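Bumping my old thread because nobody answered last time. Still need a sequence for this structure:
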């Protein structure tokens, strides 16, 4: 079990100690359930009234809440960021694999392995693959020919990395994800589908995290590109030749069609659908279930869809939507009549 003193927490977070710097914590807990030995945090000021009752050994708050805390305090600039850093330091998640190469793993003779590589049971590393230092490959993973994984990258169980895919350093890929599968490319000749070989690959930058059961297709000719510091949630579909810019975050269930470019620092809400061959500017936020059919040229927040309504209200709304064309014609007729009256 990992333990940290308040002084060590200050070093990790850059915070200011108020109280016993030798106080020890071993876990992070929510404020309403925290006990002795826990560290907690307050990120929303509306819960400040509960601070006096908090039982945590250490509370991380902004300076304005310090006087409300009954125990040892760590004053930080952003309690939620401090929580993330402390949670990393106290993380007890086991490694996807450890102890070198499992006896049942199959590793090609010409595959290049860096120092301290771990490969789990039944994993397959094909010819020409390159794994950097401290790479961890979970059980049942497949690493295709000439694929490259950078230092400290980790794959959980049953991840498939196709041939020629390049993944940078310090990346994390959750179970069931497929990177480098064929893009949806076909030509149609008199009703018969003709497959177009997908000759590009996928290039993923550094410090990228990809959730479980996400699919990232290889490019048709050029590569599909995920830049540094991108986070992708579970069950995303990223089609061929998509380019996702630095620092963008995409929530679960989102679908991005082919050859779309998404800028830097975008936030895409869950279950959004983004059309192909369009461009989204830097700094765009799309709220959940957004349907993006055209390019977005300016940063800002965009929404679409109809929020949940009681069924009777929704039926009325749907009926009115079906009558929009009729209503538009009537409106134009009224406008024309008013113009004629104004002219006379």
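Sorry it took so long. Here it is:
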């Amino acid at each position: 079990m990992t333990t940290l003193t308040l002084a060590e927490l200050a070093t990790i977070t850059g915070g200011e100690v108020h109280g016993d710097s030798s106080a020890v914590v071993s876990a992070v807990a929510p404020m309403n359930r925290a006990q002795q030995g826990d560290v907690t945090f307050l990120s929303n000021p509306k819960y400040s009234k509960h601070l006096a009752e908090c039982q945590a050994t250490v509370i991380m708050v902004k300076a304005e809440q310090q006087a409300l805390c009954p125990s040892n305090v760590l004053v930080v600039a952003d309690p939620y960021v401090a929580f993330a850093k402390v949670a990393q330091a106290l993380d007890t998640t086991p490694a996807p694999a450890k102890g070198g190469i499992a006896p049942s793993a199959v590793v090609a003779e010409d595959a290049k392995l860096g120092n301290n590589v771990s490969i789990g049971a039944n994993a397959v590393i094909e010819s020409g693959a390159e794994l950097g230092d401290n790479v961890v490959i979970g059980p049942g993973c497949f690493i295709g020919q000439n694929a490259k994984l950078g230092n400290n990258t980790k794959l959980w169980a049953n991840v498939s990395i196709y041939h020629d895919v390049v993944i940078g350093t310090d990346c994390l890929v959750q179970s069931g994800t497929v990177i480098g599968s064929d893009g949806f490319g076909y030509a149609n000749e008199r009703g018969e589908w003709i497959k177009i070989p997908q000759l590009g690959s996928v290039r993923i930058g550094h410090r990228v995290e990809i959730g479980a059961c996400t699919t990232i297709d290889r490019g048709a000719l050029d590569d599909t590109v995920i830049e540094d510091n991108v986070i992708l949630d579970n069950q995303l579909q990223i089609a061929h030749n998509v380019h996702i810019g630095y620092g963008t975050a995409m929530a679960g269930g989102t679908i991005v069609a082919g050859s779309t470019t998404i800028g830097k620092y975008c936030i895409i809400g869950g279950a959004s659908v983004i059309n192909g061959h369009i461009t989204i500017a830097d700094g765009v936020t799309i709220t959940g279930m957004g349907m993006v059919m055209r390019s977005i040229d300016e940063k800002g927040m965009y929404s679409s869809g109809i929020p949940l309504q009681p069924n009777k209200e929704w039926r009325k709304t749907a009926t009115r939507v079906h009558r929009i064309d009729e209503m538009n014609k009537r409106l134009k007729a009224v406008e024309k009549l008013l113009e004629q009256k104004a002219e006379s």
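The longest strand covers residues 38-41. Let me know if any region looks off to you.
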